[in-house]
Every structure is written in C-alpha cells, then in structure tokens.
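By way of example, what follows is a protein record of this kind.
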Amino acid sequence: MASLAAASRVVLHILPLFLLAAGTHAATFTITNKCQFTVWAAAVPSGGGKQLDPGAQPWSIEVPAGTTGGRVWARTGCNFDGSGNGQCQTGDCGGVLQCTGYGQAPNTLAEFGLNKYMGQDFIDISVIDGFNVPMDFLPADGTAGCAKGGPRCDADITSQCPSELRAPGGCNNACTVFKKDEYCCTGTAADNCGPTDYSRFFKGQCPDAYSYPKDDATSIFTCPGGTNYQVVFCP
C-alpha cells in the first residue's frame, strides 16, 4: 500500500507537466516570396534555409512551442554550390544554404518567441540589423486573439537610404556602420539610449518595426500560443 501511495504521488506530480505539454502546439510558419527576384529564405532555430524563386510555392516549417530567439529573413544575391556552400550579398549566415546561426547585416528580420509568457507568442519585425527586403509578418488565420494583428514593413527603404548607411543590396542601421553606444544601446548608453535621427528615419519608413534596441512600445505584437504565421517577402 505504501508503494502504491508513493506511486500515486509521483503520477499526480507528473500529471500537470503532462497536461501542460499536451496543451502546447507547434506553430506552422508559411514563408512566401513575392519579390520579382530570387531570395534564399532563412529560418533559425528551425528550418535552415531554402531557395525561393519568384512565384515559387511557399515554404512551410514547423516551429516547436517554447521556441525563443527565432528569426526568419531573406538572403539576396546568393550563390551556392551543390553541397550548399557559398555566400550571399545580404543576410549571409556563414556561407551555407542551411543556416544554423543568425544572418549578416543588413537584413530585415521577423523575430519571435512562442509561448514566451502567459501562453502568448511575442512577434516583431526588426530593422536593427538594417533592411534588405520589405516584409509582412502576420497571423495566418486572421487576427483573432492578436490584439494588433501583425507587423508590416512594406516600404522600399533601400532606395531612400542615407548615403552613409548604404550597403550593397540594402541599408545598414547606424549601429552597424558607426558602432557607437548611442546607436547600439550598449556601454554608456545601455540603460538610457533613445531614438536618433537614423532610427527615426527607419521608424518613419516602417512604423511597426523595431528601429533601435529600446523601441518596444510600438514594436511588440502578441498572439495566443498555437497561432500559425505567414512571412511574406515583398508583399
């Protein structure tokens, strides 16, 4: 009887964890290229990478619940050999088709943390690493439960980029170019940085997007855990 009671306590202890796991779901990300040129989509930590020609079928990936630090972005100007080794003009992730790390600036980013807090997904578009292609990052099944829908960055920032921030294939953020605390929110500005003329330029083009690291108030979007998403390049 004693062993049975002990076993019961173990079962009761494990059961809430089981129910929690059973109540979480992977999210499907559908990534579509509407650009008039080929992009090499990248996704970490799930997905890796895939070439998407204009008009190609969307790429769908499954992202486990609880994933944080997730990113999706477009790479441009790539050239890979049959083994998946090469390089890209923008967004390169170590010279491989199948990314396992983040991309090189400039690149427009879709960022996410799934079931990150109180059963909510946190999503955003960031131009903190600069800009290479326009992007929408939206809940796939409408906006039910997503208070603000999803972020959009539809402007062609590259064509309007300040000369000092221009880069082949895109537009750099000031932190990448100048590496100063006031632009990077590091060092002496880690706790008190604010918008600059450069971040205001990006914000004016894409009001939904993160334009500098502390740009939280208008740039965080939330959806219920289990929501599926679509990322569209050149919407």
